[in-house]
Specification:
The protein is built from 16 helices and 8 strands. By secondary structure, it is of the alpha+beta class. It folds into 2 domains: 386 residues, Ammonium transporter fold (Orthogonal Bundle); 110 residues, 2-Layer Sandwich (Alpha-Beta Plaits). The strands form 3 sheets. The protein has a 4-stranded antiparallel beta sheet, covered by helices on one side. It has a two-stranded antiparallel ribbon with strand order 1-2. Strand 1 and strand 2 form a beta hairpin. Helix 1 packs antiparallel against helix 7 and helix 15 runs antiparallel to helix 16. The protein is elongated and about 95 Å long.
């Protein structure tokens, strides 16, 4: 058995460092689950599967391209002598590559939220390939890999990618959204804005919290060297110098971002907007990601708070002045917040830390300019050949069906309800029936569907057709709010139930529906009974009541 003195210090340091890097790498990878939920919640229900697919393909396609091409391009731009040596470089090299890859894929997936609802899948995948191969690697080559931005003053400082990853991704998303143009019906002919709410605030908040959790890997994990070997002994490396400050400022920046966004939304609309609070948490994190290792705790509060507070202002400017449809607000969350954090770094740097306004401004300008030009060229070329955007028919139908042939929400009601479906045992009525064919049509609250299905089956009429509809009756209109903008909800979500009967009295069905759907509140719905001239069963050719 080895005693502590017999352990090779270098082997111990290497093993612990590799375990740490892999642990935080897996944590950063889990941020893709957060991005998937956040973006899926902010798009319409007909585009959810498309957004989820884009997130999975971002990783799957992008990470291979980054392995084969991108990491090497970054090294070339940075002046590396053996740019593709990592491919056959062994365990340590592969771990280092993977740590860089999760950062690259974070930048790539940000873009999908900006172009949601109208970009062709092939266009997005094409851009992801080029971003992973060239666009992002050029940015890291000019900075982290040793490029010329390190030589301007004390060099451009970005600890964990507030500008290099998030700022770049946000700027790319805004540029792509500008080239594609807004979604259908987003703007009226006079330029006024139509609000298109996302389908699930729950998904958006869940995704936000997952991202916040993963961000600890993003920021704290960048202090990658836990141990070093000094004079034959193990000592704490950069981890010991920065990890506590990084953990503190990350936490404070996140919290301040939420408060800043909530305060700005309250001042703007008189209400604390839930989505702005969620977006503010992320913007606060983006704002301190470039400087989290070397700012005071006061700086974390100020930068995080300002990053959150700028959200409503910047989003409104983009939406109403620039007329750019940034669906998931990726520029205010990632772009402008990343720029803000990089530029404010010198104001709040700890004493003795070398960072200057000249170096930070130069870095922001070069990264922003390169990203705009490269992204505009890619999406512009795709648009020129008609491959950037789906057709109006497909956009109105929804990208889930048009691009993937799936329906994200195909089910109605309670799947566990014990309701006999059409084609079960034949029901023979003994209480008589007029043999007249009638249709019972009901417009009801969606949440009562399970009870109504059961009640209809119990009176002997299990065969129904159910449709999701929107309608207006005696139920009053109400006001909704999405990202601080108020809109009127005067068409309420209902389910339409159609039940055709012959041997079962139509009034029995109507009464069963009423008893099971009644809540006593306006908006319970209405029931209509109407005659049916004829019925034909497709399989047997039976007609009249026998077909029913």
């Amino acid at each position: 058995m080895l005693t502590p003195l017999q352990i090779d210090p270098a082997a111990l340091a290497s093993g612990v460092n590799n375990v740490w890097v892999l642990t935080v790498t897996f944590l950063i990878f889990f941020m893709h689950a957060g991005f998937a939920m956040l973006e899926a919640g902010q798009v319409r229900s007909k585009n959810v599967a498309n957004q989820l697919t884009k997130n999975m393909l971002t990783w799957s396609v992008g990470v291979i391209i980054y392995f084969l091409v991108g990491a090497g391009v970054s090294s070339i731009v940075g002046g590396g002598a053996n740019p593709f040596g990592y491919i056959a470089g062994g365990s340590d090299a592969w771990i280092g590559w993977l740590f860089g890859a999760v950062f690259a894929m974070t930048a790539a997936t940000i873009v999908s939220g900006a172009v949601a609802g109208r970009a062709k899948l092939r266009a997005y995948v094409t851009y992801t390939i080029l971003l992973a191969a060239v666009i992002y690697p050029v940015v890291t080559g000019l900075t982290w890999a040793g490029g010329f931005l390190n030589d301007i003053g004390p060099g451009f400082q970005d600890f964990a990618g507030g500008m290099i990853v998030h700022g770049m991704g946000g700027i790319a998303g805004l540029t792509a959204a500008w080239v594609l143009g807004p979604r259908m019906d987003r703007y009226n002919e006079d330029g006024s804005v139509n609000i298109i709410p996302g389908h699930s605030l729950t998904f958006a908040v869940l995704g936000t919290l997952i991202l916040c959790f993963g961000w600890y890997g993003f920021n704290v994990g960048t202090a990658a060297s836990v141990f070093v070997v000094e004079e034959g002994s193990v000592a704490l490396g950069a981890f010991g110098d920065t990890v506590g400050r990084v953990a503190l400022t990350t936490t404070l920046g996140m919290a301040a971002g939420a408060i800043g966004a909530a305060t700005a939304a309250l001042a703007k609309t008189g209400k604390v907007d839930t989505l702005y609070v969620a977006n503010g948490m992320l913007a606060g994190l983006v704002g301190i990601t470039s400087n989290t290792n070397a700012i005071t705790w006061v700086g974390a509060l100020v930068i995080g708070g300002l990053a959150g507070a700028q959200l409503p202002v910047v989003f409104e400017f983009i939406e109403k002045r620039l007329k750019i449809d940034d669906v998931c607000a990726v520029f205010p969350v990632h772009g402008s917040a990343g720029v803000l954090g990089a530029l404010l770094f010198p104001l709040f740097a700890i004493p003795g830390y070398s960072v200057s306004f000249v170096g930070q401004i130069a870095g922001v300008a070069v990264i922003g300019g390169w990203t705009i030009v490269a992204t505009a060229l890619v999406f512009g070329a795709l648009k020129l050949i008609g491959q950037a955007r789906v057709s109006p028919e497909h956009e109105r139908e929804g990208l889930d069906v048009a691009e993937h042939g799936v329906n994200t929400y195909p089910e109605f009601g309670d799947p566990g309800a014990d309701v006999m479906a059409d084609g079960g045992n034949e029901i023979i009525r003994t209480d008589g029936g007029d043999r007249e064919i009638k249709m019972v049509v009901a417009m009801l609250r969606p949440e009562k569907l399970g009870d109504v299905k059961q009640a209809i089956a119990e009176v002997g009429a299990p065969s129904i057709t159910v449709t999701n509809v929107s309608g207006r009756g005696s139920q009053p209109a109400k006001k909704g709010q999405w990202r601080g903008e108020e809109y009127t909800v005067d068409l309420h979500q209902k389910v339409k139930i159609e039940c055709v009967v012959a041997d079962v009295p139509a009034m029995d069905v109507a009464e069963a529906i009423r008893d099971s759907a009644n809540t006593g509140e306006p908006g319970d719905g209405k029931i209509f009974i109407m005659p049916v001239d004829e019925a034909v069963q497709v399989r047997t050719g039976k007609t009249g009541p026998d077909a029913v």
